[in-house]
Amino acid sequence: MTQLTDRLTLRPSIRLNRELILSLIFFAGGLFIILLAAWKVPSEDVSGFTQFGKDETLVDLPSRATLWALGAFCMFAAAYQWVRGAEGTGLALGLVGFFAVSALLVWATRGDSLSLFAMLRESIVRATPLILGALSGLWCEKSGVVNIAIEGMMLSGAFTAVAATSATGSPWVGILAAVLTGLLMSALHAVLSIKYKVDQVISGTVINILAAGATRYLNIRLLTPSGNNSPGTFSVISIPVLSKIPVIGPMFFDHQPTVFIMFILVAASAVIIAYTPWGLRTRAIGEHPRAADTLGVHVNRMRFINVLIGGMIAGIGGAYFSLGEVGRFEDNMTNGKGFVALAALIFGKWTAVGGMAAGLLFGFADALQAKMQILKVGIPPEFLQMTPYILTVIVLAGVIGRAIAPAADGVPYEKQ
């Protein structure tokens, strides 16, 4: 018996850890790209990438040779991951992600062309509500309040934005109405979760259900029958001088107002939370509220105000859907984007700039699936539309790296 135990102890054990699994996935992805190029792409096909117009050629690439090269790079990243282990996981993931997306674009545009910068501009537009939702969650969760009600706050804001714009003829009044609606919904969340100490996840779920039911009822009974459900969208604003800068100008300085508001709020949130006394107190009550209380910080009051700020930002995100994108209200038009925004917040590690970067990634995935449908790549549109949500699951599963929430996030505080 002792000899058998010794033999089992000496036998080398093979453990499929996270790094090994990622290496195998990278290698399989690279091999798939190479086989796809050899099987489906004729040698004479060329993938064209333009700037903002069909005639503004940026680069033409031989489709098959480029796919072979990208597949080889993926396999190299697999070898790098195998050698470096956990230390090289982030870099290898980034490289493989870049190579995989590039391969998809090359394959989709074989024998055709794609306006690359126009798609990047579309990524910013589609990322706007996600970034605003991530900022909403940031203000709440940095102060220790979980907010999964972003979806309901945005949906309610989208409804009131249309109603107010139709009544007054001014989309700016519509945005103001959306902000006030987000304020009211967040006040409900704050009262339930902070004052009455209701489980914050349950409180957020109740608000999401309330928003979905109430907006549908009001839309069917009041808004659509009265003929006030088509106020139109915001006009695009071109910032003088800056919008004329080649490439950068049309991409960043030629948008409808909610996009510019998003940029301003990202900068303001990053500065306030990181570099001001209010931000310091907010981070303190999110990490150690008892210690903050002993220093004279009114924990629950600050949490209440931060939740209200988050709700107002979510209301602006809702106005994007109705006044910035569609020009009318549709039932459940947020379509789960509030939950994707939460994933962006987690992926961005609870920072304003990180949330923006993650939102842009999700926005790019959304713009990419839309472009794939236009190019008619042969993949069912239902599968393409799943892309942003699959990416959300990957992020929340921790494959891209673990993020640590504020220590007191979701924990009610009671002054002693």
What does this structure look like?
With 416 residues, this protein is mainly α. It is built from 17 helices and five strands. It has two domains: 16-111, no CATH class; 119-396, ABC transporter involved in vitamin B12 uptake, BtuC. The chain has a three-stranded mixed sheet with strand order 2-1-3. The protein has a two-stranded antiparallel ribbon with strand order 4-5. It is globular, with a radius of gyration of 24 Å.
Total domain modules: 2
What is the molecular shape? globular
Which bin fits the share of residues in helices?
55-70%
Distance between the termini: 61 Å
Give the helix tally. Answer: 17
Beta-strand portion reads under 5%
- The chain-level structural class is mainly alpha
Uncertain segments? 1-16
Question: How many individual β-strands?
Answer: 5
Widest sheet: strand ordering: 2-1-3
Task: List the helices and strands in order.
Answer: HHEEHHEHHHHEHEHHHHHHHH
CATH architecture descriptor name of the largest domain: Orthogonal Bundle
Q: Rg, please?
A: 24 Å
Q: What is the CATH T-level topology of the largest domain? A: ABC transporter involved in vitamin B12 uptake, BtuC
Q: What average pLDDT do the residues reach?
A: 85
